Amino acid sequence: MAPAKTATPARTKARPKPDATPKPARPKGARRTTPSPETLAALGPDRLIGLILGETARNPTFKKLVTAALAALQGPDAVAAMVDRRLAALESAQGYIDWQKRRTFAADLDATVTVILNELRPLDAGAALERLRRFLDGGDAVLNRVDDSTGAVQGVYERATDAFVAIAAGLTPAEAARVATGLVAPFTADPFGPLGTLLGDMVPTLAPDALSEIDVALAEAAAGMAKDAAPRSEAAYRRVAARGQILRLRQVIADRRNDADAFIALEREIAPGRENRLSIAQRLLAAGRPMEALDWIRREQEPGLRIVTRADLIAGFDPRGPERERQALEIDILDALGRADEAQALRWTLFERTLDAPMLRAYFAKLPDFEDEEALQKALDHAESFANPHRALAFLVGWPDMSRAAGLVTEKRKLWQGENYAVLAPAAEALVQDYPLAATILYRRLLDGILEAGRSAAYTHGARYLLELDGLADRLAAGAIDPAPAAYRERLKRDHGRKHAFWGLLRD
Questions:
Q1: How many other CB atoms are found less than 10 A from the CB of residue 144?
Q2: Which residue stretches does the UniProt record annotate as biased composition, category Low complexity (predicted)?
Q3: pLDDT tens per residue across span 77-136
Q4: What's the pLDDT tens digit per position in 164-195?
Q5: From CA 93, how far away is CA 99, in angstroms rounded?
Q6: Neighbour-count burial for 221-233, b at 16+ CB within 10 Å, e otherwise
Q7: Where are the domains of the chain?
Q8: From 88, 247, 300, 406, which residue has the greatest number of CB atoms within 10 Å?
Q9: What is the C-alpha to C-alpha distance for residues 324 and 359, in angstroms, rounded to an integer?
Q10: What Rg do the C-alpha atoms of the chain give, in angstroms?
Q11: How many CB atoms are located within 10 Å of the residue 339 CB?
Protein backbone atom coordinates (compact mmCIF):
# COMPACT_ATOMS: atom_id res chain seq x y z
CA MET A 1 0.00 0.00 0.00
CA ALA A 2 1.50 3.29 -1.11
CA PRO A 3 2.26 5.78 1.63
CA ALA A 4 -0.07 8.77 1.80
CA LYS A 5 1.25 11.93 0.18
CA THR A 6 1.77 14.88 2.44
CA ALA A 7 0.88 18.36 1.30
CA THR A 8 3.89 20.58 0.76
CA PRO A 9 3.54 24.30 1.39
CA ALA A 10 3.46 26.45 -1.74
CA ARG A 11 6.63 28.40 -2.40
CA THR A 12 6.24 32.12 -2.14
CA LYS A 13 8.52 34.64 -3.73
CA ALA A 14 10.18 37.09 -1.39
CA ARG A 15 8.49 40.44 -1.83
CA PRO A 16 10.64 43.55 -1.95
CA LYS A 17 10.50 45.92 0.94
CA PRO A 18 7.96 48.71 0.48
CA ASP A 19 10.68 51.39 0.44
CA ALA A 20 12.93 49.55 -2.02
CA THR A 21 13.13 51.22 -5.42
CA PRO A 22 14.27 49.18 -8.41
CA LYS A 23 17.56 50.39 -9.86
CA PRO A 24 17.88 50.86 -13.60
CA ALA A 25 19.72 48.09 -15.33
CA ARG A 26 23.33 48.97 -16.07
CA PRO A 27 24.40 48.28 -19.66
CA LYS A 28 26.37 45.08 -19.71
CA GLY A 29 30.12 45.74 -19.67
CA ALA A 30 29.81 49.53 -19.29
CA ARG A 31 31.61 49.68 -15.97
CA ARG A 32 34.24 47.16 -16.95
CA THR A 33 35.52 49.21 -19.89
CA THR A 34 35.52 52.67 -18.27
CA PRO A 35 39.07 53.56 -17.15
CA SER A 36 39.20 53.96 -13.37
CA PRO A 37 41.62 52.91 -10.63
CA GLU A 38 39.63 49.71 -10.10
CA THR A 39 39.33 48.69 -13.75
CA LEU A 40 42.94 49.53 -14.56
CA ALA A 41 44.19 47.58 -11.55
CA ALA A 42 42.41 44.56 -12.98
CA LEU A 43 44.66 44.66 -16.05
CA GLY A 44 47.70 43.82 -14.00
CA PRO A 45 51.15 45.47 -14.08
CA ASP A 46 52.46 43.65 -17.15
CA ARG A 47 49.54 44.70 -19.32
CA LEU A 48 49.72 48.31 -18.09
CA ILE A 49 53.45 48.47 -18.69
CA GLY A 50 52.88 47.30 -22.25
CA LEU A 51 50.26 49.97 -22.86
CA ILE A 52 52.53 52.69 -21.44
CA LEU A 53 55.51 51.61 -23.52
CA GLY A 54 53.35 51.53 -26.64
CA GLU A 55 52.11 55.07 -26.02
CA THR A 56 55.61 56.38 -25.31
CA ALA A 57 56.71 55.07 -28.69
CA ARG A 58 53.84 56.89 -30.43
CA ASN A 59 53.54 60.07 -28.36
CA PRO A 60 56.69 62.15 -27.61
CA THR A 61 54.81 64.38 -25.16
CA PHE A 62 53.59 61.41 -23.16
CA LYS A 63 57.12 59.96 -23.23
CA LYS A 64 58.44 63.19 -21.69
CA LEU A 65 55.91 62.97 -18.86
CA VAL A 66 56.77 59.33 -18.14
CA THR A 67 60.50 60.08 -18.23
CA ALA A 68 60.02 62.94 -15.78
CA ALA A 69 58.02 60.71 -13.43
CA LEU A 70 60.89 58.19 -13.46
CA ALA A 71 63.42 60.97 -12.89
CA ALA A 72 61.43 62.12 -9.86
CA LEU A 73 62.20 58.78 -8.21
CA GLN A 74 65.85 59.86 -8.17
CA GLY A 75 65.14 63.23 -6.55
CA PRO A 76 64.71 66.89 -7.54
CA ASP A 77 68.14 67.23 -9.14
CA ALA A 78 67.33 64.63 -11.79
CA VAL A 79 64.05 66.37 -12.70
CA ALA A 80 65.72 69.80 -12.68
CA ALA A 81 68.45 68.55 -15.01
CA MET A 82 65.85 67.22 -17.42
CA VAL A 83 63.98 70.54 -17.42
CA ASP A 84 67.23 72.49 -17.82
CA ARG A 85 68.11 70.55 -20.97
CA ARG A 86 64.76 71.44 -22.52
CA LEU A 87 65.05 75.10 -21.50
CA ALA A 88 68.56 75.31 -22.95
CA ALA A 89 67.28 73.88 -26.23
CA LEU A 90 64.48 76.49 -26.31
CA GLU A 91 66.93 79.31 -25.61
CA SER A 92 69.31 78.30 -28.39
CA ALA A 93 66.67 77.49 -31.03
CA GLN A 94 66.18 79.97 -33.86
CA GLY A 95 63.99 78.14 -36.36
CA TYR A 96 60.52 79.43 -37.24
CA ILE A 97 57.54 77.35 -36.16
CA ASP A 98 54.76 77.60 -38.77
CA TRP A 99 51.09 76.80 -38.24
CA GLN A 100 51.57 73.16 -39.27
CA LYS A 101 54.00 72.51 -36.41
CA ARG A 102 52.38 74.87 -33.91
CA ARG A 103 50.13 72.30 -32.23
CA THR A 104 52.97 69.85 -31.55
CA PHE A 105 55.23 72.67 -30.37
CA ALA A 106 52.58 74.03 -27.98
CA ALA A 107 52.00 70.53 -26.58
CA ASP A 108 55.74 70.17 -25.97
CA LEU A 109 55.91 73.52 -24.17
CA ASP A 110 52.89 72.61 -22.07
CA ALA A 111 54.49 69.30 -21.13
CA THR A 112 57.56 71.19 -19.89
CA VAL A 113 55.37 73.29 -17.61
CA THR A 114 53.53 70.16 -16.45
CA VAL A 115 56.82 68.47 -15.53
CA ILE A 116 57.85 71.50 -13.48
CA LEU A 117 54.52 71.61 -11.65
CA ASN A 118 53.78 67.91 -11.19
CA GLU A 119 57.24 66.45 -10.67
CA LEU A 120 59.65 69.19 -9.55
CA ARG A 121 57.39 71.37 -7.41
CA PRO A 122 56.46 68.63 -4.88
CA LEU A 123 60.16 67.90 -4.42
CA ASP A 124 61.57 71.45 -4.41
CA ALA A 125 59.28 74.48 -4.75
CA GLY A 126 62.24 76.87 -4.99
CA ALA A 127 63.75 74.94 -7.89
CA ALA A 128 60.36 74.90 -9.62
CA LEU A 129 60.11 78.69 -9.29
CA GLU A 130 63.59 79.13 -10.77
CA ARG A 131 62.67 76.98 -13.81
CA LEU A 132 59.37 78.75 -14.32
CA ARG A 133 61.15 82.09 -14.23
CA ARG A 134 63.71 80.89 -16.77
CA PHE A 135 60.89 79.52 -18.95
CA LEU A 136 59.04 82.84 -18.84
CA ASP A 137 62.22 84.84 -19.41
CA GLY A 138 62.53 83.20 -22.82
CA GLY A 139 58.90 83.81 -23.70
CA ASP A 140 59.47 86.77 -26.01
CA ALA A 141 62.09 84.93 -28.03
CA VAL A 142 59.80 81.93 -28.45
CA LEU A 143 56.71 83.95 -29.35
CA ASN A 144 58.70 85.91 -31.94
CA ARG A 145 59.50 82.75 -33.87
CA VAL A 146 56.15 80.98 -33.84
CA ASP A 147 52.91 81.46 -35.76
CA ASP A 148 50.61 81.76 -32.74
CA SER A 149 47.48 83.06 -34.47
CA THR A 150 45.32 80.80 -32.26
CA GLY A 151 46.95 81.97 -29.01
CA ALA A 152 47.82 78.39 -28.01
CA VAL A 153 51.47 79.13 -27.25
CA GLN A 154 50.59 82.35 -25.43
CA GLY A 155 48.19 80.30 -23.33
CA VAL A 156 51.06 78.08 -22.15
CA TYR A 157 52.98 81.12 -20.94
CA GLU A 158 49.89 82.44 -19.17
CA ARG A 159 49.55 79.08 -17.44
CA ALA A 160 53.19 79.30 -16.34
CA THR A 161 52.63 82.84 -15.03
CA ASP A 162 49.62 81.75 -12.97
CA ALA A 163 51.57 78.79 -11.62
CA PHE A 164 54.52 80.99 -10.63
CA VAL A 165 52.24 83.33 -8.66
CA ALA A 166 50.46 80.38 -7.01
CA ILE A 167 53.73 78.76 -5.92
CA ALA A 168 55.11 82.06 -4.61
CA ALA A 169 51.91 82.61 -2.61
CA GLY A 170 52.64 79.38 -0.75
CA LEU A 171 56.06 80.57 0.44
CA THR A 172 56.69 82.27 3.76
CA PRO A 173 56.05 86.06 3.67
CA ALA A 174 59.79 86.78 3.81
CA GLU A 175 60.62 84.30 1.05
CA ALA A 176 57.77 85.56 -1.15
CA ALA A 177 59.03 89.12 -0.68
CA ARG A 178 62.54 88.03 -1.68
CA VAL A 179 61.21 86.44 -4.88
CA ALA A 180 59.18 89.54 -5.71
CA THR A 181 62.14 91.85 -5.07
CA GLY A 182 64.14 89.82 -7.54
CA LEU A 183 61.55 90.66 -10.19
CA VAL A 184 61.89 94.44 -9.82
CA ALA A 185 64.81 94.71 -12.26
CA PRO A 186 63.11 92.82 -15.13
CA PHE A 187 59.88 94.69 -14.45
CA THR A 188 61.48 98.11 -14.71
CA ALA A 189 63.39 96.99 -17.80
CA ASP A 190 60.24 95.75 -19.57
CA PRO A 191 56.96 96.07 -17.63
CA PHE A 192 55.06 94.48 -20.53
CA GLY A 193 57.33 91.45 -20.87
CA PRO A 194 56.64 87.94 -19.52
CA LEU A 195 58.71 88.54 -16.40
CA GLY A 196 57.41 92.07 -16.01
CA THR A 197 53.83 90.91 -15.57
CA LEU A 198 54.87 88.54 -12.78
CA LEU A 199 55.63 91.33 -10.34
CA GLY A 200 52.28 93.00 -11.01
CA ASP A 201 50.50 89.71 -10.34
CA MET A 202 52.48 89.05 -7.15
CA VAL A 203 52.16 92.43 -5.42
CA PRO A 204 48.47 91.99 -4.43
CA THR A 205 49.38 88.68 -2.75
CA LEU A 206 52.25 90.07 -0.63
CA ALA A 207 51.98 91.29 2.95
CA PRO A 208 51.86 95.11 3.14
CA ASP A 209 54.95 95.16 5.36
CA ALA A 210 56.97 93.37 2.69
CA LEU A 211 56.42 96.03 0.03
CA SER A 212 58.71 98.83 1.23
CA GLU A 213 61.86 97.66 -0.54
CA ILE A 214 59.95 97.02 -3.76
CA ASP A 215 58.30 100.45 -3.66
CA VAL A 216 61.63 102.21 -3.09
CA ALA A 217 63.20 100.39 -6.03
CA LEU A 218 60.26 101.24 -8.29
CA ALA A 219 60.37 104.90 -7.23
CA GLU A 220 64.07 105.10 -8.08
CA ALA A 221 63.49 103.53 -11.49
CA ALA A 222 60.63 105.92 -12.29
CA ALA A 223 62.70 108.93 -11.20
CA GLY A 224 65.53 107.85 -13.46
CA MET A 225 63.19 107.62 -16.43
CA ALA A 226 61.82 111.11 -15.75
CA LYS A 227 65.30 112.64 -15.71
CA ASP A 228 66.33 110.76 -18.82
CA ALA A 229 63.68 112.43 -20.98
CA ALA A 230 64.59 112.50 -24.68
CA PRO A 231 63.15 114.05 -27.83
CA ARG A 232 60.13 112.36 -29.34
CA SER A 233 61.09 108.97 -30.68
CA GLU A 234 59.88 105.41 -30.52
CA ALA A 235 62.28 104.72 -27.66
CA ALA A 236 61.00 107.78 -25.79
CA TYR A 237 57.40 106.65 -26.17
CA ARG A 238 58.31 103.20 -24.88
CA ARG A 239 60.03 104.78 -21.89
CA VAL A 240 56.98 106.90 -21.12
CA ALA A 241 54.74 103.83 -21.30
CA ALA A 242 57.09 101.84 -19.06
CA ARG A 243 57.22 104.66 -16.52
CA GLY A 244 53.43 104.77 -16.47
CA GLN A 245 53.29 101.05 -15.68
CA ILE A 246 55.79 101.50 -12.86
CA LEU A 247 53.70 104.28 -11.33
CA ARG A 248 50.51 102.22 -11.67
CA LEU A 249 52.17 99.34 -9.83
CA ARG A 250 53.20 101.76 -7.09
CA GLN A 251 49.51 102.67 -6.81
CA VAL A 252 48.70 98.99 -6.27
CA ILE A 253 51.27 99.02 -3.47
CA ALA A 254 49.65 102.15 -2.02
CA ASP A 255 46.29 100.36 -2.02
CA ARG A 256 47.81 97.34 -0.27
CA ARG A 257 48.99 99.74 2.44
CA ASN A 258 45.64 101.59 2.54
CA ASP A 259 47.60 104.78 1.83
CA ALA A 260 45.15 107.07 0.03
CA ASP A 261 47.55 110.03 0.05
CA ALA A 262 50.26 108.04 -1.73
CA PHE A 263 47.72 106.90 -4.32
CA ILE A 264 46.63 110.50 -4.95
CA ALA A 265 50.21 111.75 -5.25
CA LEU A 266 50.96 109.07 -7.84
CA GLU A 267 47.75 109.85 -9.74
CA ARG A 268 48.81 113.49 -9.96
CA GLU A 269 52.15 112.39 -11.32
CA ILE A 270 50.59 110.07 -13.88
CA ALA A 271 47.93 112.45 -15.22
CA PRO A 272 48.38 115.99 -13.93
CA GLY A 273 45.14 117.91 -14.40
CA ARG A 274 43.30 114.80 -15.56
CA GLU A 275 43.43 112.66 -12.44
CA ASN A 276 40.90 109.87 -12.08
CA ARG A 277 38.63 111.68 -9.64
CA LEU A 278 36.42 108.60 -9.22
CA SER A 279 39.31 106.40 -8.06
CA ILE A 280 40.58 109.09 -5.70
CA ALA A 281 37.15 109.78 -4.20
CA GLN A 282 36.53 106.04 -3.69
CA ARG A 283 39.71 105.72 -1.66
CA LEU A 284 39.08 108.85 0.38
CA LEU A 285 35.56 107.66 1.22
CA ALA A 286 36.91 104.24 2.25
CA ALA A 287 39.48 106.01 4.42
CA GLY A 288 36.71 107.86 6.29
CA ARG A 289 37.41 111.23 4.64
CA PRO A 290 34.07 111.95 2.93
CA MET A 291 34.47 115.74 2.77
CA GLU A 292 37.68 115.43 0.75
CA ALA A 293 36.03 112.74 -1.36
CA LEU A 294 33.16 115.11 -2.17
CA ASP A 295 35.62 117.81 -3.22
CA TRP A 296 37.35 115.42 -5.64
CA ILE A 297 34.18 113.93 -7.11
CA ARG A 298 32.84 117.40 -7.92
CA ARG A 299 36.01 118.76 -9.48
CA GLU A 300 35.89 119.84 -13.08
CA GLN A 301 38.06 117.67 -15.26
CA GLU A 302 39.94 118.68 -18.36
CA PRO A 303 38.30 117.21 -21.46
CA GLY A 304 40.09 114.33 -23.08
CA LEU A 305 39.64 111.48 -25.51
CA ARG A 306 37.88 108.32 -24.39
CA ILE A 307 39.34 105.40 -26.30
CA VAL A 308 36.65 102.79 -26.86
CA THR A 309 38.24 99.38 -27.35
CA ARG A 310 36.88 96.37 -29.20
CA ALA A 311 36.21 94.75 -25.83
CA ASP A 312 34.09 97.78 -24.87
CA LEU A 313 32.02 97.39 -28.03
CA ILE A 314 31.50 93.67 -27.46
CA ALA A 315 30.43 94.33 -23.87
CA GLY A 316 28.02 97.06 -25.01
CA PHE A 317 29.84 100.22 -23.94
CA ASP A 318 27.48 102.86 -22.57
CA PRO A 319 28.98 106.37 -22.93
CA ARG A 320 26.80 107.51 -20.02
CA GLY A 321 28.24 104.83 -17.75
CA PRO A 322 31.27 106.73 -16.38
CA GLU A 323 29.18 109.80 -15.49
CA ARG A 324 26.49 107.64 -13.86
CA GLU A 325 29.19 105.89 -11.81
CA ARG A 326 30.55 109.28 -10.74
CA GLN A 327 27.12 110.51 -9.67
CA ALA A 328 26.33 107.27 -7.82
CA LEU A 329 29.53 107.71 -5.81
CA GLU A 330 28.61 111.34 -5.09
CA ILE A 331 25.32 110.09 -3.65
CA ASP A 332 27.15 107.61 -1.40
CA ILE A 333 29.41 110.41 -0.19
CA LEU A 334 26.44 112.68 0.58
CA ASP A 335 24.84 109.86 2.57
CA ALA A 336 28.10 109.37 4.49
CA LEU A 337 28.10 113.10 5.32
CA GLY A 338 24.50 112.90 6.59
CA ARG A 339 23.20 115.09 3.77
CA ALA A 340 20.28 112.81 2.94
CA ASP A 341 18.12 115.47 1.28
CA GLU A 342 20.85 116.34 -1.21
CA ALA A 343 21.41 112.65 -1.94
CA GLN A 344 17.68 112.12 -2.57
CA ALA A 345 17.49 115.17 -4.84
CA LEU A 346 20.39 113.85 -6.90
CA ARG A 347 18.79 110.40 -7.18
CA TRP A 348 15.57 111.96 -8.50
CA THR A 349 17.47 114.18 -10.92
CA LEU A 350 19.30 111.19 -12.35
CA PHE A 351 16.05 109.30 -12.78
CA GLU A 352 14.36 112.26 -14.48
CA ARG A 353 17.25 112.69 -16.86
CA THR A 354 17.76 109.07 -17.96
CA LEU A 355 14.90 106.95 -16.54
CA ASP A 356 17.44 105.09 -14.43
CA ALA A 357 15.36 102.34 -12.79
CA PRO A 358 17.94 101.25 -10.15
CA MET A 359 18.35 104.87 -9.11
CA LEU A 360 14.58 105.24 -8.75
CA ARG A 361 14.38 102.10 -6.60
CA ALA A 362 17.15 103.51 -4.40
CA TYR A 363 15.17 106.75 -4.17
CA PHE A 364 12.05 104.86 -3.01
CA ALA A 365 14.07 102.89 -0.45
CA LYS A 366 15.07 106.15 1.26
CA LEU A 367 11.56 107.66 1.34
CA PRO A 368 9.61 107.92 4.61
CA ASP A 369 6.64 105.57 5.04
CA PHE A 370 3.45 106.34 3.09
CA GLU A 371 5.18 108.67 0.62
CA ASP A 372 6.22 106.05 -1.92
CA GLU A 373 2.81 105.66 -3.65
CA GLU A 374 2.54 109.32 -4.62
CA ALA A 375 6.19 109.35 -5.72
CA LEU A 376 5.64 106.23 -7.82
CA GLN A 377 2.73 107.80 -9.73
CA LYS A 378 4.82 110.90 -10.34
CA ALA A 379 7.71 108.79 -11.63
CA LEU A 380 5.51 106.73 -13.96
CA ASP A 381 3.82 109.87 -15.30
CA HIS A 382 7.25 111.29 -16.04
CA ALA A 383 8.29 108.08 -17.79
CA GLU A 384 5.20 108.09 -20.04
CA SER A 385 5.95 111.64 -21.18
CA PHE A 386 9.69 111.08 -21.62
CA ALA A 387 11.12 112.62 -24.79
CA ASN A 388 12.56 109.33 -26.06
CA PRO A 389 9.62 106.91 -26.45
CA HIS A 390 11.82 103.85 -26.91
CA ARG A 391 13.62 104.60 -23.64
CA ALA A 392 10.25 105.15 -21.98
CA LEU A 393 8.92 101.82 -23.26
CA ALA A 394 11.99 99.96 -22.05
CA PHE A 395 11.57 101.48 -18.60
CA LEU A 396 7.84 100.71 -18.31
CA VAL A 397 8.31 97.10 -19.45
CA GLY A 398 11.25 96.58 -17.13
CA TRP A 399 9.68 98.23 -14.08
CA PRO A 400 7.09 96.68 -14.88
CA ASP A 401 3.86 98.58 -15.59
CA MET A 402 2.41 96.76 -18.58
CA SER A 403 -0.81 98.78 -18.68
CA ARG A 404 1.10 102.04 -19.14
CA ALA A 405 3.48 100.35 -21.59
CA ALA A 406 0.54 99.18 -23.73
CA GLY A 407 -1.02 102.64 -23.61
CA LEU A 408 2.26 104.21 -24.71
CA VAL A 409 2.54 101.79 -27.65
CA THR A 410 -0.98 102.45 -28.93
CA GLU A 411 -0.80 106.20 -28.34
CA LYS A 412 2.48 106.60 -30.26
CA ARG A 413 2.03 103.75 -32.72
CA LYS A 414 3.66 105.62 -35.62
CA LEU A 415 6.87 106.43 -33.76
CA TRP A 416 8.25 102.93 -33.23
CA GLN A 417 11.34 102.04 -35.27
CA GLY A 418 12.05 98.41 -36.15
CA GLU A 419 15.81 98.88 -35.86
CA ASN A 420 15.31 99.33 -32.11
CA TYR A 421 14.59 95.61 -31.85
CA ALA A 422 16.47 95.36 -28.53
CA VAL A 423 13.58 97.36 -27.03
CA LEU A 424 10.63 96.39 -29.23
CA ALA A 425 11.11 92.61 -29.31
CA PRO A 426 11.11 92.00 -25.52
CA ALA A 427 8.30 94.56 -25.13
CA ALA A 428 6.12 92.77 -27.68
CA GLU A 429 6.80 89.44 -26.01
CA ALA A 430 5.83 90.88 -22.63
CA LEU A 431 2.62 92.45 -23.99
CA VAL A 432 1.40 89.56 -26.12
CA GLN A 433 -0.54 87.79 -23.37
CA ASP A 434 -2.77 90.61 -22.11
CA TYR A 435 -2.43 93.42 -24.65
CA PRO A 436 -2.81 91.96 -28.16
CA LEU A 437 -3.21 95.33 -29.91
CA ALA A 438 0.02 96.77 -28.49
CA ALA A 439 1.88 93.54 -29.26
CA THR A 440 0.52 93.59 -32.84
CA ILE A 441 1.76 97.14 -33.37
CA LEU A 442 5.26 96.26 -32.20
CA TYR A 443 5.50 92.96 -34.11
CA ARG A 444 4.43 94.76 -37.30
CA ARG A 445 7.09 97.43 -36.83
CA LEU A 446 9.72 94.76 -36.22
CA LEU A 447 8.70 92.75 -39.28
CA ASP A 448 8.43 95.81 -41.52
CA GLY A 449 11.90 96.91 -40.44
CA ILE A 450 13.41 93.55 -41.40
CA LEU A 451 11.70 93.23 -44.78
CA GLU A 452 12.03 96.86 -45.86
CA ALA A 453 15.77 96.79 -45.15
CA GLY A 454 16.17 93.31 -46.67
CA ARG A 455 18.02 92.02 -43.60
CA SER A 456 18.18 88.39 -44.65
CA ALA A 457 20.12 87.40 -41.53
CA ALA A 458 17.02 88.36 -39.50
CA TYR A 459 14.46 86.55 -41.69
CA THR A 460 14.13 83.79 -39.11
CA HIS A 461 13.04 86.36 -36.54
CA GLY A 462 10.74 87.97 -39.10
CA ALA A 463 9.02 84.67 -39.80
CA ARG A 464 8.46 84.18 -36.08
CA TYR A 465 7.00 87.69 -35.81
CA LEU A 466 4.54 86.96 -38.64
CA LEU A 467 3.44 83.75 -36.93
CA GLU A 468 2.88 85.74 -33.74
CA LEU A 469 0.78 88.22 -35.72
CA ASP A 470 -1.30 85.38 -37.15
CA GLY A 471 -1.96 84.15 -33.61
CA LEU A 472 -2.94 87.64 -32.44
CA ALA A 473 -5.29 88.35 -35.34
CA ASP A 474 -8.31 86.58 -33.83
CA ARG A 475 -7.88 88.45 -30.53
CA LEU A 476 -8.18 91.92 -32.05
CA ALA A 477 -11.44 93.83 -32.03
CA ALA A 478 -12.85 94.74 -35.43
CA GLY A 479 -11.32 97.95 -36.68
CA ALA A 480 -8.75 98.05 -33.88
CA ILE A 481 -5.86 98.42 -36.29
CA ASP A 482 -5.40 99.60 -39.85
CA PRO A 483 -4.79 97.74 -42.05
CA ALA A 484 -6.71 94.74 -40.72
CA PRO A 485 -4.71 91.49 -40.31
CA ALA A 486 -5.79 89.99 -43.67
CA ALA A 487 -5.05 93.24 -45.51
CA TYR A 488 -1.68 93.53 -43.77
CA ARG A 489 -0.70 90.06 -44.96
CA GLU A 490 -1.76 90.92 -48.51
CA ARG A 491 0.37 94.06 -48.38
CA LEU A 492 3.38 92.01 -47.25
CA LYS A 493 2.87 89.65 -50.21
CA ARG A 494 2.53 92.55 -52.61
CA ASP A 495 5.54 94.51 -51.39
CA HIS A 496 7.89 91.68 -50.46
CA GLY A 497 6.67 88.68 -52.43
CA ARG A 498 10.04 88.22 -54.15
CA LYS A 499 11.89 87.69 -50.87
CA HIS A 500 11.74 83.93 -51.38
CA ALA A 501 14.14 83.16 -48.52
CA PHE A 502 11.67 84.72 -46.10
CA TRP A 503 8.53 83.05 -47.42
CA GLY A 504 10.36 79.76 -47.65
CA LEU A 505 10.89 79.84 -43.90
CA LEU A 506 7.12 80.12 -43.41
CA ARG A 507 6.44 77.17 -45.70
CA ASP A 508 8.96 75.11 -43.78
A1: 9
A2: 1-11
A3: 999 999 999 999 999 999 999 988 999 999 999 999 999 999 999 999 999 999 999 999
A4: 999 998 888 889 999 999 999 999 888 888 88
A5: 17
A6: bbeebeeeeeeee
A7: 50-287, 288-302+319-385, 397-508
A8: 406
A9: 10
A10: 35
A11: 16
